[in-house]
Amino acid sequence: MRGGDSSGLRAYNERLILNAILRAGALSKAEIARATGLSGQAASVIVNRLLEDGLLIKRDKVRGQVGQPSTPIAANPSGAFSLGVKIGRRSVDAVLVNLLGEVIASRSQSYRVPYPEATVETAARQANGLLAELDEARRERVVGLGIAMPGELHGWATELGLAADALAGWREIDAARALEEATGLSSALYNDGTAACAAEMIVGDGIVRRSALYVYLGTFIGGGVVLDGRLYRGEQLNAGAIGSMPTCAGDPQARPEQLIHRASVIALERVLEAAGIEAASALSGADLPAAEPIFEAWAEGAVAVLARSVVSALAVIDFEAVVVDGLLPPSWRRRFTLRLAEALEGFDWTGLQPAEILPGSIGPMARVLGAAMLPLKARFSPDAELVVRSVASLVVGPNGAAGEASA
């Protein structure tokens, strides 16, 4: 066997072991060998190397069981770190996570308009601020920077109430390269819907079926698609772009609107602000009785159009579940999900099987958390695709899309 092949196999086996440990929490060397299919000697050699590298740690021996006491091996939370940045239509968020996906520190800044240069400068400042919180030794363990952004951000000026060319500068800015130069980290760009769906798959509780339609109620609605247990991007990288689905037009001669115009949170924000209610406070879950009837009215209309889109999607792909997450506070998210399930009961299901309608479990942090987790998975997973309930990886290109979610 050539040296390169041997090195590749060794790296694969290291990822295989680390993946098994991350999934289980902790395993003895014997359990690691059984879980990975490696020989006991091979598993022991690799585990010892990962212990020396600081990626694994030993826990106290477990006594009182049949046989010799065993020493559980676990992932070292400080063995690796990753940065995630979400550039949205309403805010920039950044998080620093450890090898376990735990958030170590975060930054957030809201704005009315995502002007290109100022927004990228803010993202770079946030990322470098988080890096500054690490000492030199831990700084060297940062594996990369993931960036979650809406697709074609320059094309949404009109929907944000701006002049058509107000965001044209996004055509010229390479956000991944700019942040890579600013931080010195290898950067990867993901669609924000892809990142949100990935977060739900990696650390969330909502996606447990092998097929699911993921709906993200962001400033503009979007989502993702899970097929055969894997996040599916589509041949043209548009899978899950439910915001672009047409809605029924009242005038047969009129051009149908898209779902993004009828079921996006930006519409709720505008009605709240018009009523003198701070939208940010309402969406944070503050107890604002005056916001309740406004939410109910918006949800009624949004659910009605979304339900038709869900049935249409189920007629094309036999999804087992529809998972709804997004910017809404948990109580509103649960009520919206229940309303959607009730609305779906009123459709003619002849020839179709209803899907289970479930709330997502992460909320507003899904996009930035997914952006942070994906570089870790790309570095330490043995798989090439993100798989349900695993810590496998997915790397998408600059225009990768699983929908048009976002804030």
UniProtKB/TrEMBL annotation:
Keywords: Kinase, Transferase. This is Sugar kinase of the NBD/HSP70 family, may contain an N-terminal HTH domain. Residues 16-59 form the HTH marR-type domain. It comes from Tistlia consotensis USBA 355. SUPFAM superfamilies: Actin-like ATPase domain, Winged helix' DNA-binding domain. It comes from the Bacteria. One of its GO terms (molecular function) is DNA-binding transcription factor activity. Belongs to the ROK (NagC/XylR) family.
